[in-house]
Amino acid sequence: MPMYTNWAHISQFQIQILQSWFMLWIFLLEIPTGAVADFLGRKYSLAMAGLVTAIATLVYGSVPLFGVFLIAEFLYAMGAALSSGADDALLYDALKEEGRESESKKIFGRANTIHLAGIFLAAPIGSLMAQKFGVNSPMLFSAIPTFLCFLVALSIREPKVHDKTPERKRYLLIAKNGISFFVHHRVLRLLALDGVLVAAGAYFVIWFYQPILMKLGLPIFWFGFIQAALVGAEMLISANFTRLEKWAGGAKGFLKFGALVTGLSFFIVAIWPSFWTVGILLLFAGGFGLTRLDLMSAYMNKLIPSEQRATVLSSISMLRRIALVILNPIMGFIFDKSLMWAMILAGTIPLLVFFFSPIENEGLE
């Protein structure tokens, strides 16, 4: 955010336009990038993702112009689309080849923990770079690890056992079978709508907390440490889902609590913006709001037949992206006019879920 505002001098509305542009291109590039995995293999799709993303970081950090950022976001989206599903597919096929697919839940959970740990460790380094070399330097330096991703992906051995469904056909199946199953399954539909709405509101924690801290005069040096604290809150909540469910009296109680505290923390910052209330926002809207959809995925998995699981979950992911393509510019425009009303609107979305969600325990057990 300091790079956008202090270096490029663009508005919050333009920042959120960039995020919508990014998500729209991920959506549009799924089929053509799936062709890469079909013809060259998933490891080469991952390798190209690393290389394209490395180029994106260099473009992003080169010139402080909105038009240049649009090009960089397109490249980022291409990298994301090239890696989308290919990494998970490679990991699962490797486990299947060794007869260890029963360990997939544990291994995938460990992979996600490593992912969060990477952000937790890297964020403070980024703020130190920003202070010493300029706010665009973390973006430029990011070309190094992403280029290393390119080299590591090339070293991966493609498993001999793999799903024969071409990636392009898989994407069309998502659009057809997954959405059809989702639309006709009432309980799943309600769970997905509940989860996507709260996640869409919580998403704006990521984009709003830094501008608020900048208005409060916090030095850039601290931004990476606060980002690490946000990720730490996510890790803490994710690691204690079972305990928190028992404390809340069951799954429904915990989900309602997550929606409530996510919404209220936005309202608290809207009424009284301070370092303390931003801390509350990061702990509750960040820790509970940003992890809530991950927990709901576990509930939704129980309702989906194994042969349709990938397509249905991908359909729900698409739904969230489409919602954010629409919401991003609206929220950015309101934020430029009034911080208070942007925070209130972001908090209203999860509060509506808290008050009106028809989910019952039967759908969660």
How much helical structure, as a percent, in the residues? over 70%
SS strand fraction = under 5%
CATH topology of the largest domain: Growth Hormone, Chain: A
Give the termini distance in whole angstroms: 41 Å
Shape: globular
State mean pLDDT (0 to 100 scale): 85
Number of separate helices: 18
In short:
This protein has 18 helices and no strands. It is mainly α and 365 residues long.
Report on the architecture of this protein.
The protein is an all-alpha fold. The chain is built from 18 helices and no strands. It folds into two domains: 1-164, Growth Hormone, Chain: A; 165-365, Up-down Bundle (Growth Hormone, Chain: A), CATH 1.20.1250. The longest helix has 30 residues, at 104-133. The radius of gyration is 20 Å and the shape is globular. It starts with a helix and ends in a 9-residue tail after the last helix. The model has no long low-confidence stretch (mean pLDDT 85).
List the keywords:
single chain; 365 residues; mainly alpha; Growth Hormone, Chain: A; 18 helices; 81% helix
Task: Furnish the topology, listing elements before pairings.
Blueprint: H1 2-7, H2 12-40, H3 42-60, H4 66-83, H5 86-97, H6 104-133, H7 137-141, H8 143-155, H9 167-184, H10 186-202, H11 204-215, H12 223-238, H13 241-247, H14 251-271, H15 275-289, H16 292-301, H17 309-337, H18 339-356
Helix pairs in contact: 2-3, 2-4, 2-9, 2-17, 3-4, 3-5, 3-8, 6-12, 9-17, 10-16, 10-17, 10-18, 11-15, 12-15, 13-14, 14-15, 14-18, 17-18
